[in-house]
């Protein structure tokens, strides 16, 4: 349970919400109850997605073993170190839309002998296949993460899909495992998740859900290793996709996906990642909150077909989608990443925490240089985006138990949009520590949160003067979390949130 009461501050009501002093801060009350609001927050809701798209792999995370850029088995070392710090729980690969045009056989064997193909989905550039199964699994092992392989249901046979899984996981002496050994890998890899197609309603084959359901059943039958079978679900707000898939193929899947992108304006005019005004800020945050409505609608349908909640919901593509950076290849989906993107990430995390009964995985799109990236690279230079810092701030929530809360917050109003000024999420981690995360959506007013339990709050905050604050290669540390502390007075423990901020603190009792 999470109760949110949205009142309205007098300042907002009078339309006088300009820069205010701490004394004028919005008054927010947060009560944290000891009862869990649902099962634990799976670490995998902090999951990732790497696609053969633009500079996501080549010229991004992958530089190759011969590169002068320091690397581990071809993967850039600085990126590996940064990703280890945020305990990456799972990576989905190789697409996205790319997955349904990918032949896994192109990516095995001696690199020099691998075929060059056109990446027809993303710009028609050459796909060298230098990164294939072995290289991706190197990345998985370097990060100590789980692999989520996206299989091709759109343009290959069930036999080809089944054989890929067998190639990766078989311990036998038969030919596919023997071929893997000849290619340099003796022990089978651990493949926990396997996607049966991607966006089958769109780039994955433009299928009717009825046809897709039959195809899913057929393809899933030939996945003989014990994997979590992930069915492709809705991504366009069409409930019938989930409904028909659950009704006709529910028994043949362990999870179904939901894709949700936050577009600040319209799909044909998304808007720039930087240089936006307060109206666009509010519109973006309103759109970001829409992810929860899609989770709720999808969950309701799943509940009808699967009341025991055997099938999980994986939000395996989510994030901000802006217009491409001027001067970049539009097919590469490169965009800058600002404080606004981090706010969207934090609000999405809270939505995942509120629906742990179904949402067991989520994968932001994407890890490096594509869409809402955590990492941007330029030659040897690399920077960590505000979204990376949001993942870092929320580390204590991986595996923690979400708690019920009662939140009393004023409204934030802008350009005809009304949103709760503050959004919150509380959880207890496996060591019994109590954590609270607070997002102040209002870009102008600070907020004072009272009613918190404990004697001391200690943690970090991400905030900035400008709504579009971001890191650049010549100023890579401009925006990063800063320490924050508060002690209880005789009136109890309260915490001040700067305007447009994300705060994550541990609440300590002496
Ligand atoms: O993440 C970019 C693309 O968005 C993915 O390839 C596709 O699945 C979605 O439409």
What descriptors fit this protein?
alpha/beta, 510 residues, binds alpha-L-arabinofuranose, 29% strand, ten-stranded mixed sheet, eight-stranded parallel barrel, 10 helices, 26 strands
Characterization of this structure:
This protein is an alpha/beta fold and 510 residues long. The chain is built from ten helices and 26 strands. The strands form six sheets. Strands 1, 2, 17, 20, 21, 22, 23, 24, 25 and 26 form a ten-stranded mixed β-sheet that branches. Strands 3-6-9-10-11-12-13-14 form an eight-stranded parallel β-barrel, surrounded by six helices. Strand 18 and strand 19 form a beta hairpin. Helix 8 (278-305) packs parallel to helix 9 (339-353) and helix 9 (339-353) runs parallel beside helix 10 (386-393). The two termini are 28 Å apart. The structure holds alpha-L-arabinofuranose (AHR).
């Amino acid at each position: 349970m999470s109760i949110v009461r949205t009142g309205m501050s007098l300042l907002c009501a009078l339309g006088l919400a300009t820069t205010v002093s701490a004394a004028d801060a919005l008054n927010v009350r947060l009560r944290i109850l000891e009862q869990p609001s649902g099962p634990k927050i799976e670490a995998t809701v902090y999951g990732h997605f790497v696609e053969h798209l633009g500079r996501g792999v080549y010229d991004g995370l992958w530089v190759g073993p011969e590169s002068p850029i320091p690397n581990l088995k071809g993967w850039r070392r600085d990126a590996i170190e940064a990703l280890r710090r945020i305990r990456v729980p799972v990576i989905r690969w190789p697409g996205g839309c790319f997955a349904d045009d990918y032949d896994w056989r192109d990516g095995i064997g001696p690199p020099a002998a691998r075929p060059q193909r056109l990446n027809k989905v993303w710009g028609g550039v050459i796909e060298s296949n230098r990164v294939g199964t072995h290289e991706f699994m190197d990345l998985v092992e370097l990060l100590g993460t789980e692999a989520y392989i996206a299989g091709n249901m759109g343009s290959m046979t069930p036999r080809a899909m089944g054989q890929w899984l067998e190639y990766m996981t078989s311990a036998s002496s038969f030919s596919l495992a023997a071929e893997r050994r000849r290619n340099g890998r003796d022990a089978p890899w651990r493949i926990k998740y396997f996607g049966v197609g991607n966006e089958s309603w769109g780039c994955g084959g433009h299928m009717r859900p009825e046809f897709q359901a039959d195809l899913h059943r057929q393809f899933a039958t030939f996945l003989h290793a014990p994997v979590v079978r992930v069915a492709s679900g809705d991504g366009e707000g069409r409930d019938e996709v989930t409904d028909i898939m659950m009704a006709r193929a529910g028994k043949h899947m362990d999870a179904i996906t939901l894709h949700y992108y936050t577009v600040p304006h319209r799909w044909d005019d998304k808007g720039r990642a930087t240089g936006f005004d307060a109206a666009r800020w509010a519109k973006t945050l309103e759109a970001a909150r829409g992810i929860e409505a899609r989770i709720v609608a999808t969950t309701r349908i799943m509940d009808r077909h699967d009341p025991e909640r055997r099938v999980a919901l994986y939000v395996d593509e989510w994030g901000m989608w802006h217009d491409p950076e001027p001067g970049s290849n539009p097919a590469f989906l490169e965009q800058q990443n600002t404080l606004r993107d981090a706010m969207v990430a934090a609000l999405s995390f809270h939505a995942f925490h509120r629906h742990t009964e179904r949402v067991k995985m989520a994968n932001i799109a994407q890890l490096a240089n594509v869409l809402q990236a955590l990492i941007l690279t330029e030659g040897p230079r690399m920077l960590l985006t505000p979204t990376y810092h949001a993942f870092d701030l929320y580390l204590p929530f991986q595996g923690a138990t979400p708690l019920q809360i009662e939140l009393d917050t004023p409204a934030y109003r802008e350009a005809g949009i009304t949103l709760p000024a503050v959004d919150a999420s509380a959880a207890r981690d496996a060591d019994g520590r109590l954590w609270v995360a607070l997002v102040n959506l209002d870009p102008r007013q600070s907020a004072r949160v009272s009613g918190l339990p404990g004697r001391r709050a200690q943690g970090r905050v991400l905030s900035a003067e400008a709504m579009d604050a971001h890191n650049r290669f010549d100023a890579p540390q401009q925006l990063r979390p800063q320490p924050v502390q508060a002690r209880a007075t005789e009136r109890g423990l309260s915490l001040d949130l700067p305007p447009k901020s994300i705060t994550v603190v541990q609440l300590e009792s002496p």
